[in-house]
Amino acid sequence: MSIKNIRLEVMQFLEAKVDGFVQEYLIPIEKIWQPSDFLPNSEGDNFFEEVKELREIAKELPYDFWVVLVGDTITEEALPTYESWLMDVEGIDNVERNAWSNWVRQWTGEENRHGDLLNKYLYLSGRVNMREVEMTTQHLITDGFDIGTGRDPYKNFIYTSFQELATYISHNRVSQLAKSYGDKKLSKMCKMIAGDEMRHHHAYSEFVNQIFAVDPSEMMLAFQHMMKHKIVMPAGFLRESGAKISSAFEQFSDSAQRIGVYTANDYVDILQKLNSMWQIDKISNLTDEAEKARDYLMKLPARMARVSERLVIPAESQIFKWVEPARL
């Protein structure tokens, strides 16, 4: 049997458990928070006062913070690209609407709230050029993305396990910074988003656990493949209006590193956490090739830590069209 057919067989085997995963890791629409819960109430008599207060507090937030917040917002708003990618993964059938496609749609619905909330905050703050932000979002959705997984569910679940934890770290750090700058409401927004990301991380990590239990060697090789090629962020093709694909992502990442929102050390820490969570060192019944993959994965965090120590982040901030210094 081909590797592709084995993947499909495993996905079909696990499909019977997906409804349980939905109940455990996702929240019914009527019960989960919505963006309007945290924004000025447009139906209320105090709407304009609430907006004025939001705008006054937003004045205290520094430049790199705004760059990171805009980049996070654009990343969250590119959800249509991510859903369309996941719907094409082996074993996920949106035509017949199987349990896996049901998961992807419900997961997307939860994630979609994040961009809605952050976008409205940016709009009300008056601190960013919304038209430039909107063009960048449209470019990112139009350009799509390539995360190096192909249609392979094993690689895709490795990616989402890693990426959901990375976005938790990013949103949680932004929450902490916003609180330190006195913006308690923005801090609460980002904390709620971070909570969703952690819950989703646990879900995708469990999918990987389930696959390790039934197809350990191929799962190990998929994990090695993803880490050899590195986990690229979903906004890797980020660009401003009139610019080339990927032209803005490195500068956005530099801003995130400068203020400690997401750093090279965090990348290493996530890998260590995944190795520990999946008990990579204890998995048995591996082929010789998978054993070598395990050895690679166990040694990789220390190797990457040494590399991260040599990274030099530019001291000067890139000036983005999204965030013009004159507005701050």
Reconstruct the topology from this structure.
Elements: H1 3-25, H2 47-58, H3 63-77, H4 79-86, H5 99-125, H6 130-143, H7 153-180, H8 184-214, H9 216-228, H10 249-258, H11 264-277, H12 288-309
Plain-language structure description:
The chain has 328 residues and is mainly alpha-helical. The chain is 66% helix and 0% strand. Helix 1 (3-25) packs across helix 8, helix 3 (63-77) packs antiparallel against helix 5 (99-125) and helix 7 packs across helix 11 (264-277). The protein is globular, with a radius of gyration of 21 Å. The chain starts with a helix and ends in a 19-residue tail after the last helix. The model has no long low-confidence stretch (mean pLDDT 94).
Number of strands: 0
Share of residues in strands: under 5%
Can you tell me the overall shape?
A: globular
Q: Tell me the number of helical segments per DSSP (H or I, 4 or more residues long).
A: 12
Mean pLDDT metric: 94
The helical percent reads 55-70%
What is the first-to-last residue Cα distance?
61 Å
Task: Output the structural class.
Answer: mainly alpha
Report low-confidence residues grouped into runs of 5 or more. Answer: none
Q: From the alpha-carbon coordinates, what is the Rg to the nearest angstrom?
A: 21 Å
Oligomer: single chain
What order do the helices and strands follow? HHHHHHHHHHHH
Largest sheet: none
